[in-house]
Amino acid sequence: MSIYTLIQGVTRFRCRSWMESIDINRGWYYIHCSTCDEKVYLEEDGELHFVCKDCEDFTPIFKYSNTIINDSTKAIEVVLFNEGMEALLKITCKDLITKHGCTDPKKLPQQMALVIGKSKIVHLLLKKENNVVVTNVSESETTVQVDSPAQHVTSSALPPATPNLKANKFKRPYAESGGKLHYI
To answer: Which residue of 91, 137, 163, 181 is 20 to 30 Å from 105, comparing CA positions?
Structure first.
């Protein structure tokens, strides 16, 4: 199936696609409060501190931001749940920020730049209000050429679209016998 099929009404499927870009203007991650669900702010004074404007005692929840994926039929913005991005990057959002020092949400970490253009099997789900969610990512072997880490994909290197198995309308021939139809 393809991303185009998703837009036509299928709500859950897998397809071969690649990460085309991440909107750095929105930031590659966000952190919210475990108590009030509001945005948490990062303060650096030699150590990393997370501050919620409303809560004193909370746990910061680290999340990756949206990204654009493409499967040669359509490019679409998707929500990559942490599980999907972690399967793709092999590292948690929290670890990228706290252990690898990738604290600038406007600067794409090298780990993310390296997966742009890499073809993967992407598990997609159409949620309410037409939000498309990537629930998982698994390996494949194709690489798609990318102009730069957050730019366009060269269409000549695209993998073929996944065939639609329901498109085959061929039915078995039938024969009439004793007033009843029998499939051969």
So the answer is: 137
